[in-house]
């Protein structure tokens, strides 16, 4: 027995008409094709269904045992769609169950639907495959219609027309700039940069990243995350610390009465910057700890973070001060003071680690899952 199998991989038939699938029998497939043509006359799967009925009628007129059926997948994932088609093919074969060996003639409207051929072949032999191509698709009228449909899509319109519009505006904008004694090269460079940035933005798929970042910010705002505030404060503190570090370099340079080496400049910058960095680190870590506690994921070892930040800050502050001369705003340390600062930083980190490890083993904490 020969089965004419019409394949609609993205389930246009089910989604647009509500007809349950699979559809078996020439009359039912014809009714389904009419219903789909009524719902969406532009859908190419209409031609697939009518072509299947046409092939069925031709073979039946020749005296061959033949049946026609329409199977559909799902819209979206190709893997899920192929599995859905396989399940519907199994149902069709179960309903036929004539005892004869069944082979198939597959009708599709394009290469995408033909990706399901291995699934069908695993269930029965395939004697033939026919791709339905509408004749008008080769005409100029169809080309115009296709371009019109493509440009009607918002995503495609933004991808194609925006860069094209900017490119077409380059020459008139340069002419206008020259009329107002503005350097045309500057306008050309700006427009070229805009087109380049847009191309990189689209080519690298950054729109998804930006959309995800925006969604994360909205989620943080709506859920009342403390980290949003603490991160902003920490960023401000880091900026202030950078300015303070540059001021410290100038102070050391004035005290030394001339230029300073790269090592001294680096030590001066760290000495002025690290205090603000430490406050920023403690602020942001306390915000994160608060959010973890409110979310029920608090662990005692999270409290190590601010102590680690303080320990590192003490060490960097002491080491940088050891290399600097006495000056306003600079704490110049001797070797004994440096040793004590290093010991204090180390002990702070070690004792906090031990203390919170003991607390975690003795006191209950929220389940991190």
From TrEMBL:
<feature type="transmembrane region" description="Helical">
    <location>
        <begin position="182"/>
        <end position="201"/>
    </location>
</feature>
<feature type="transmembrane region" description="Helical">
    <location>
        <begin position="222"/>
        <end position="243"/>
    </location>
</feature>
<dbReference type="InterPro" id="IPR007254">
    <property type="entry name" value="DUF373"/>
</dbReference>
<keyword id="KW-0472">Membrane</keyword>
<keyword id="KW-1133">Transmembrane helix</keyword>
<protein>
    <recommendedName>
        <fullName>DUF373 family protein</fullName>
    </recommendedName>
</protein>
<keyword id="KW-0812">Transmembrane</keyword>
<dbReference type="Pfam" id="PF04123">
    <property type="entry name" value="DUF373"/>
</dbReference>
<feature type="transmembrane region" description="Helical">
    <location>
        <begin position="338"/>
        <end position="359"/>
    </location>
</feature>
<feature type="transmembrane region" description="Helical">
    <location>
        <begin position="263"/>
        <end position="286"/>
    </location>
</feature>
<feature type="transmembrane region" description="Helical">
    <location>
        <begin position="307"/>
        <end position="326"/>
    </location>
</feature>
<feature type="transmembrane region" description="Helical">
    <location>
        <begin position="158"/>
        <end position="176"/>
    </location>
</feature>
